[in-house]
Q: What sequence folds into this?
């Protein structure tokens, strides 16, 4: 049986603003938009040139969920906590995300995984977005490093 992760769904308050932010911050393009009239759900699917996707979903009356300041605090809540991207250039990618409006949750530093560095930012609505960098040690070909923009 062959399976792969298709996309990550992120619930947002301001769909147009978050769509623009995610497109600019990660080099994503819109591939599909839809609205479910009954529940008032609107969504946009964004795709990176390497094929990974994020689905942004918005519904009137939504309320903020987990707003942890860092990954360790987020792990105190069960369920979805974050999604992560990987890059061989952690420091410049981290700086570019912060310059694009991301909040600084954890500056680049060592990861618990040997040979790996990590950092975390938040999107403009406060959701965690960790990033990792590989030194080439301990990574399988299944976790191919790539920058957020390709």
A:
């Amino acid at each position: 049986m062959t399976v792969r992760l298709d996309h990550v769904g992120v619930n947002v308050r301001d769909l147009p603003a978050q769509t623009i932010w995610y497109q600019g911050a990660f080099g994503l393009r819109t591939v599909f938009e839809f609205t479910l009239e009954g529940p008032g759900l609107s969504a946009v699917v964004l795709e990176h040139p390497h094929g990974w996707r994020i689905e942004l979903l918005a519904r009137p009356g939504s309320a903020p969920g987990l707003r942890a300041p860092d990954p360790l605090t987020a792990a105190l809540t069960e369920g979805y906590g974050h999604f992560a991207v990987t890059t061989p250039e952690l420091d410049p990618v981290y700086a570019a995300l912060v310059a694009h409006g991301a909040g600084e949750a954890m500056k680049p530093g060592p990861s618990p995984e040997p040979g790996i560095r990590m950092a975390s930012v938040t999107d403009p609505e406060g959701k965690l977005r960790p990033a990792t960098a590989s030194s080439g040690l301990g990574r399988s070909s299944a976790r191919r490093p790539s920058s957020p923009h390709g």
